[in-house]
Amino acid sequence: MPGVEKILEKMHNQPNGIKLSEVEKVLLDHGYSFIRQKGSHSHYIHRDIGDMITVRQENPLKNVYILLMCSTESGSEECEMTVEEYMALPYTRLIQEINDESGHYYYGCILELDGCQSTADTIDSLMDSLNEAMEGYLEIKVEMNLPIPMPLQDDGYSGRFVVRLPKSLHKKLSIEASNEGVSLNQWVCHKLAL
């Protein structure tokens, strides 16, 4: 099996066709430890920095795993990502329809890239505008060698969390849910989604 440097070069120059065994070799070399396998996913953790990487066990691996791995802080400097590689990652795009004194339009932002946002008259033009804003945002970050947050992944979210609130608010929400004929959980989800 090739050395870690050759694997990193291959990952950077030609991310398709990378095998799980190659990724594991790089992870172990960079301080990650295999923790466990759950279903079709292997979980690795870097105990010193608390970073965790989850990889689906398939050969070859999908490009997104390679691009995300290349971007980890503990990765090699040889594996720096280009703007195009960042643009290909699954960043979260939030879109909101707005009706205000400015008129009717759409607002969008990239959740993980604080301040990366745009507006447009239609959803299609918003997507184009948002991609243009994101490309400029990433170009500046790369040129100035500033850290770029990675996309959020659904792996760490169960869909549940506990909230403590005043009894009066609990009562108010329960009454509202009852009036709407839905469960308290459904009502709170509805309120949070607004």
Q: Your description of this structure?
A:
- The chain is of the alpha+beta class.
- Helices cover 40% and strands 20% of the residues.
- The chain is built from seven helices and six strands.
- It has a three-stranded antiparallel β-sheet, with helices on one face.
- Helix 6 crosses helix 7.
- Residues 73-78 have low confidence and may be disordered.
Give the helix/strand layout.
Layout: H1 4-13, H2 20-29, E1 33-38, E2 41-46, E3 51-56, H3 63-70, H4 83-87, E4 93-100, E5 103-110, E6 117-120, H5 123-143, H6 167-180, H7 184-193
Antiparallel strand pairs: 1-2, 2-3, 4-5, 5-6
List the keywords:
three-stranded antiparallel beta sheet, 6 strands, 3 domains, Metal Transport, Frataxin, Chain A, 194 residues
The separation of the N and C termini measures: 53 Å
What's the helix count? 7
Shape: globular
| Amount of helix | 40-55%
E-strand count: 6
- Output the structural class: alpha+beta
Number of domains: 3
| Gyration radius from CA atoms, angstroms | 21 Å
Spans of at least 5 consecutive residues with low confidence:
73-78
CATH topology of the largest domain: Metal Transport, Frataxin, Chain A
User: Within the largest sheet, what's the order of strands?
Assistant: 1-2-3
Sheet bearing the most strands, described? 3 strands, antiparallel
CATH architecture of the largest domain: 2-Layer Sandwich
CATH H-level superfamily title of the largest domain: Hypothetical protein
CATH class of the largest domain: Alpha Beta
The chain-level mean pLDDT equals: 81
